[in-house]
């Protein structure tokens, strides 16, 4: 009878290892090399997964391409802005401590003094650490909500609002530049108030005073400002407009 066609089951076993000193030394080297290879494979897999996560976070962040090079390293430090730079860098490096208390920052100052650069630098640092950050102006953030009203929208209004509310950090750039319609006012208040209630940190940049923001929103301005003051440490920035200085 042909053994290949029989009902026998063949089991291949690894050869027994010799226990003589030279063999033991040899197999120890083999096992150590295999262990290092396995650790390297696992490290590569973890790094690949980390990079995939960061890529996904960057796509979800809404951070404009122009701001993806605005790091702490290429921020132009001057005597006027070294204090705000130190505060921003420390905030990014100790962000995990801020999460539970919902502590944020509010950068104020004239146009072109680096408010958005520091907010973007914090965003970049945290995205690379694996935190979910969303960045945008009121207009672009609320425009994301408006897209949900289209017939072919892939997300609902509630889903987008929840992302804005529950992201690890929300950065609202240039607060005060948006047109204050009743709908904008309602949505802005809902997002800020919901983050306030959830102890979620917020970063704001603006060249508009708190009094002007309060007056800008007729029905909820006082409540919005009150929550911002409680949630955010004020960071005043001084200096010349760096955009104009580049043209000189």
Can you describe what's shown?
With 248 residues, the chain is an alpha/beta fold. 52% of the residues lie in helices and 10% in strands. It has ten helices and five strands. The protein has helices at 21-61, 82-93, 95-99, 115-128, 138-146, 157-166, 182-197, 210-216, 221-231, 242-245, and strands at residues 104-108, 133-137, 169-173, 202-206, 232-236. The protein has a five-stranded parallel β-sheet, sandwiched between helices. Strand 3, helix 7 and strand 4 form a beta-alpha-beta unit. The protein is elongated. The model has no long low-confidence stretch (mean pLDDT 86).
Low-confidence stretches: none
Widest sheet, order of strands: 2-3-4-1-5
How much helical structure, as a percent, in the residues?
40-55%
Based on Cα principal axes, name the global outline: elongated
Kindly estimate the percentage of residues that lie in beta strands according to DSSP.
5-15%
